[in-house]
Amino acid sequence: MPTAKPLAARLAHIPPTVFSEMSALALRTGAINLGQGFPDVDGPASVLAAAEAALEAGANQYAPGIGVPALRAAISRHQHRHYGLEPDPDREVVVTTGCTEAVAAALLALVDPGDEVVVLEPYYDSYVAMLDMCGARRRPVTLRAPDFRPDLDELRAAVTDDTRLILLNTPHNPTGTVLTRDELQVVADLAIEHDVIVVTDEVYEHLVFDDARSAEGHVPIATLPGMWERTLTLSSAGKSYSFTGWKVGWATGPAPLVQAVLAAKQWLTFTSGSPLQPAVAHALDHEPDWPRELARDLQGRRDLLCDGLTAAGLSPRVPEGTYFATTDISHLGWPDGRAFCLALPEVAGVVAIPTQGFYDDREAGRQLVRWAFCKERDVITEGVRRLAAADLSR
Ligand code: GLN
Q1: What is the pLDDT of residues 139-176, one digit of tens each?
Q2: Which of 224, 264, 332, 390 could form a disulfide with 109 if both were Cys (CB 3.0 to 4.6 A apart)?
Q3: 37 lines ligand 1 (CB under 6 A)
Q4: How far is the CA of 36 from the centre of ligand 1 (A)?
Q5: 202 C-alpha to center of ligand 1: Å?
Q6: Does residue 214 surpass a pLDDT of 60?
Q7: Hey, whose CA ends up nearest to atom 7 of ligand 1?
Q8: How far is CA 182 from CA 156, 185, 207, 230, 321, in A?
Q9: How many Å from the N-terminal Cα to the C-terminal Cα in the chain?
Q10: Which ligand 1 atom lies nearest to the CA of residue 353?
Q11: Is the pTM of this model over 0.85?
C-alpha cells in the first residue's frame, strides 16, 4: 500500500456525489428515498423485450464507437419529430454512456485548462467535477430562490470575450426551471456576439408539465436562429423512458462539435453497451408517445408531493419540469440543508437531497432541499405523511 494519499490533486477536493451518499443513507436507515432521482417503476415492456431480443440475437460485441447505426438514425428522427432538426446520423450524432459521459467528453474535448465556462447554478454535480478535472474556470450565473429564474443582467455580465463555453441545463436539475424562449434568446444573442459554444443538457426534455410557465414547453436552444452551428445538445433515454440504469445517452450538433465529443469519448469508454442501443432505437421509433404520457402522470405526482410538502410546512416552489421540487427550510432552525438531510431519516424516516453543494454562492443554496416525485404514489403519500407527522424543527 503506497503511503501517499491516493487521490490526485484534481480529484482530492471534490466530495463524493451526494446522490450516492443519500441513497446509501436511505438503504442503511430504511427511510423513504425522495432523494436520488430514479423512478421505482421501469419503462415500456416493448423496450425491455427489444433489449432481450438484441442480447439473444448476438448484439454482444463492440458497437461502433459513434454508436450503432439504427440508434443514430432513431435519434436523428427524434430530433426531427420533436424539434424540426435534422442531424446527419453519420456525422452529427454520437451515442454515449449516459448523458454524464456526453458532458464529460464534451468538456474534455472543448475546454482547455484556464478556459472560462459560464454555467447556471445550482449546477448538476458532475458538471463541476468535470470542469475541475478539465482545469476550467467556472463563471456561475445563479438561479435564485424563490423563482429560480436566471437574472438576465447577471447573465449578460457573465458572458464576455473570455468565455469559451456556456453550459446550460433545461429543464433544470435541481430547480425544475424550464428556460423560456425569451431567456434562451438572451443566451443565444450572447453566444453569437462573443462567438461562444453552447453545450446544453436536455435529459428532462420530455418531462415538462402542461401548466409550466414556459407554456411552449421545452425549447432546445439549437433551434434558435444561428444556434445550430454552435450548439451541442445532450440527452439520454434514462429519464424519457424510465431506464436510468441503462446509461444510453447522446450528443447531437454540427459535425465538428460531435466529432470533438467522439475524439474524447473513444478514450473514455471506447464504445457504449451494444444490446441496449437497438432497444433505445426501438423506444424512440416505436414508443414516441410514452414520454408524454409519463410527463402527464408525473405532473399528478408532482402535485401530490408539493401539496404534501405544503401540508408539512415545507412549501415548495412548484417546478415546471424534471423529477424534482425544492423547498427552503430556513424557518426550521437548522444550520443548513445538509444538516437537515442527514438528520431527516431519524427525524422523519425520509431522505432528501441538500442542494447547497451545487452552488459556488453557498449562501444562496444553504437552506435549500430537493425532493423527488418520480416515485410511486403510495411512496410519495407515505413520505409526506411522515414529514407532516414529524417535528422538523431543530
Ligand atoms: N440525476 C439523478 C439526480 O439528480 C441522479 C444521478 C446520479 O446519482 N448521479 O438525482
Answers
A1: 999 999 999 999 999 999 999 999 999 999 999 999 99
A2: 264
A3: yes
A4: 5
A5: 14
A6: no
A7: 19
A8: 14, 5, 20, 18, 17
A9: 43
A10: 10
A11: yes
| Strand 93-96 relative to strand 249-252, pairing | antiparallel
Residue 213 to residue 217: CA distance in whole angstroms: 8
- Taking the C-alpha atoms of residue 377 and residue 106, their distance in angstroms, rounded to an integer, is 37
Residues 6-11 have a mean pLDDT of: 89
CA of 90 to the centre of ligand 1 (A): 30
Starting at the edge strand found earlier in the chain, the sheet holding 93-96 runs 93-96, 249-252, 231-236, 197-201, 163-169, 116-121, 137-144, 149-150
CA angle centred on 289, ends 285 and 295, rounded to 5°: 135
Judge whether 193 and 146 are in contact, CB under 8 Å. Answer: no
Residues 150 and 136: their CA atoms lie apart, in Å, by 22
At 52-94, the pLDDT tens digits run 999 999 999 999 999 999 999 999 999 999 999 999 999 999 9
- Name the residue at shortest CA distance from atom 9 of ligand 1: 19
pLDDT recorded at residue 211:
73
Q: Whose CA is closest to atom 4 on ligand 1?
A: 37
The grid coordinates listed for 299 are 405532473
- The sign of the CA dihedral 230, 204, 73, 111 is positive
Q: How far is the CA of 235 from the centre of ligand 1 (A)?
A: 14
- Contact between 375 and 23 under an 8 Å Cβ cutoff? The reply is no
Q: Do 72 and 66 contact (CB within 8 A), yes or no?
A: yes
Which amino acid belongs to residue 75? I
Give the separation between CA 57 and CA 52, rounded to whole angstroms.
8
For residue 17, how far is its CA from the centre of ligand 1 (angstroms)? 9
Atom of ligand 1 nearest to the CA of 126: 9
Testing ligand 1's pocket by substitution, the residue of 18, 25, 38, 203 carrying the most ligand atoms inside 8 A of its CB is 38
Q: How confident is the model at residue 95 (pLDDT cuts 50, 70, 90)?
A: very high
Ligand 1 proximity of 17 Cβ (cutoff 6 Å): yes
The response to whether residue 171 sits with its C-beta less than 6 Å from ligand 1 reads no
Q: Cβ neighbours of residue 10 under 8 Å, at least 6 residues apart?
A: 132, 133, 135
Residue with the three cell numbers 444553504: 366
